[in-house]
Amino acid sequence: MSKFNILVLNGHNLNLLGKREPNIYGHLTLEHINTILNQEASNLNVTLSCLQSNHEGVLVDYIHQALNHHQGILINAGAYTHTSIAIRDALSAVAIPVVEVHLSNIYKREDFRHHSYIAAIALGQISGFGVESYRLGLQALVNHLQQELIR
Ligand code: CA2
Fold first, then answer.
1. Total domain count for the chain?
2. What is the CA(13)–ligand 1 centre distance, in A?
3. 134 Cα–ligand 1 center, Å
4. What is the whole-number distance in angstroms between the Cα of residue 140 and the centre of ligand 1?
5. Is 123 strand, coil or helix?
6. Which CATH number is 96's domain given?
7. Residue 125: CB within 6 Å of ligand 1?
8. Helix ranges, the chain (H)
9. 96 lies in which domain range?
10. Beta partners for 6?
């Protein structure tokens, strides 16, 4: 059985993690989060491609390029979560299982963060657990892919 390849996508400003607003987003850098995720991936026997962009169209391109390369997508689209029909349409178009994650609990924050364009086309959403949101999201995504294989 070949290993699942998971695309981990981070949207704009997430490259600033650990460098700004640690009261909201914590002290871990994105590089550190990716290291933790790669450790979890090796426990789960999957491989990761971790990408970040501050540009909506680049994120759409990464999603398109996932076709035939990745079996699942773990995404924190940042503020694009609340604005981007383009990213939602790209995720729908490639039809690769998606789990949406957020470091902060978006429902405890401003009203404009309460709506996600991605949630309705995702397997599920995990929000509010810091780096654990990513780890739990990866576990849920891999579990889903493994269940699909034996069905
Ligand atoms: O909680 C999350 O993970 C968010 O996706 C983060 C987004 C925010 O717009 C969403 O509503 C919730 C913002 C990412 C910005 O990241 C920064 C990191 C450090 C300093 C400043 C921004």
1. 1
2. 7
3. 13
4. 22
5. coil
6. 3.40.50.9100
7. no
8. 22-25, 30-44, 56-65, 85-94, 131-150
9. 4-150
10. 48, 72
Residue with tokens 């789960």: 44
Nearest CA to ligand 1 atom 5: 78
CA 36 to chain CA centroid, Å, is 14
22-67 pLDDT, tens digit each: 888 889 999 999 999 999 999 999 999 999 999 999 999 999 999 9
pLDDT per position as a tens digit, 71-120: 999 999 999 999 999 999 999 999 999 999 999 999 999 999 999 999 99
The answer, yes or no, to whether any atom of ligand 1 lies below 6 A from the CB of 113, is yes
66 Cβ inside 6 Å of ligand 1: no
Residue 20 Cβ inside 6 Å of ligand 1? The answer reads yes
In three-state secondary structure terms, 99 is strand
Q: How far apart are CA 128 and CA 118, in angstroms?
A: 16
**Residues forming beta bridges with residue 9, ordered by sequence position:** 51, 75
